[in-house]
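Please check both lines for our workbook:

___
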Amino acid sequence: MAKFKRILLKLSGESLMGEKKYGIDEKRLGEYAQQIKEIHDMGVQIGIVIGGGNIFRGLSGAGKGFDRVKGDQMGMLATVINSLGLSSALVAAGVKARVLTAIRMEPIGEFYTKWKAIEAMENGEVVIMSAGTGNPFFTTDTGSSLRGIEIEADVMLKGTRVDGIYTADPEKDSTATKFDEITYDEVLARGLKVMDLTATCMCKENNLPIIVFDMDTVGNLKKVMSGENIGTLVHP
């Protein structure tokens, strides 16, 4: 039995690079699709938001002289490319998938509405919600918080390269220790970079719990959905 009925899965665009330095690693994409298929077979309703950092990140573009609004729009399009790649991999794995976009771009994807997303999930489709919020100055973390709240998800699962939330960046600080669980307020007070401030505050205000876990280890997504205590739970 799955622990949650409906989830919002937030995937890192950078993780899609796998062993590559840029773009999409087909092997990683296939692993993600298989992991998503495993929990889909458990009857879980799945909404997905995926970042675009493997292709273009608006904020870093702004630091290199791009207009911030245009840079963010380029980042939104990067998330659409990743969403199309993931939907293709899911269909190849035998899972129905639908791409919705926050900006009108038919026939690439249908224009997002909450009701369209929920109806598709209830019909057994995996719904990939792309192009962020459709607005500049918002990250895909904020986009995933917004979509998670809108689709009335039971939890947001944030799949990353690390196995949870630490007191400091474990890739830079060997003394960093991991939290099994932590409150939103403590995340904010400690200034932990779980998600950006806007995204964390939205989850806090709307009581959407977050589980941060390592998605790059095959099988971890099913473990989280089976209730195994891996990763870090962020709660009220």
